[in-house]
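Morning!

This is the sequence you dropped in the shared folder:
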Amino acid sequence: MKLTVNRREFVAGSCAALAGVALGRMSSGFTYAPTEQKLAVGCRDVHLKVTGADDCWAAMRTIGAESVAATVGDDLSIPALFHPSRKYTLATAEGIEQLAADAKAAGVKVTAFCMSNRFDTRPDFELEWTAKAAEAAKALGAKAIRIDVVPHKLSPQEFPAFAVEILGKLVKATESTGVRFGMENHGGTTNNPEFLRTVFQGVGSDRLGLTLDTANFYWFGHPLSKLYDLYAEFAPRVVHTHCKSIRYPESERETQRQRGWKYGDYCCPIYEGDIDFRRVVEILRKAGYANDLCIENESLGKFPQAEQGSVLAREIEYLKELR
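The structure's back. Tokens below.
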């Protein structure tokens, strides 16, 4: 679905979104049966500072976010959740308790952690680091962790077998947490459906799933109509989402494009893009998905700084209408 918005409509819609936001607390349980439960709508924590709010919780109120995906540093810090008088961390029980208390007070849910892993260059560190994050996720009630599964040192031929082995170890080491890990489809490896199928089959655990980035399959070059087949195939594996879009020229939408073709020119807010999010939500709900719809907007820099928070608010309001 393509929705074009002129500047006057954008401003009017943004004001309405900012004025009408309401926070709610949503469950992040997972099933494989169709669900009628409303999905929590939020964004990645890295976007929150564009609102100009004094702290991350006020930022979420400003844009109407009910949930947030928190970025985890190598030291288990949560650097993008900002506050004037404290820093958030998963490294200590006290830090986890503080984050849980502040999220509860704000009426929002930490639905996922986002980790930038380098499994093939530092496997022992990655297993320990990610296992600690899983324990923290369990304590917070966050059911999913977005992980990076891409080669940094190994060849494309070597990497699939390695990925199966290391992720099998990760799943086994974190069995007591119940937390699910979502490989994000991005870059040249995990946007390849064959790689995803190989790893899912090889690991053989329903705790290894997908962080579905709706635009990245499109970025990879897959034609627009093929996206929905991919979404449907992997929907039972989805544990977390990155909702974003691209608006390609009509002549390019159904072609097999070069990977990353003019992404910087055509990335856009979800309400302006080619991807039909009503259809995306229907596919996910039919598969029993019950976590979050999480905005990741890589086009914010195209907008004046003063409008970027309003763009996020409008995206969130748009997804709330579809959930």
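Headline: The chain is about 40% helix and 15% strand.

More detail when I'm at my desk.
O.
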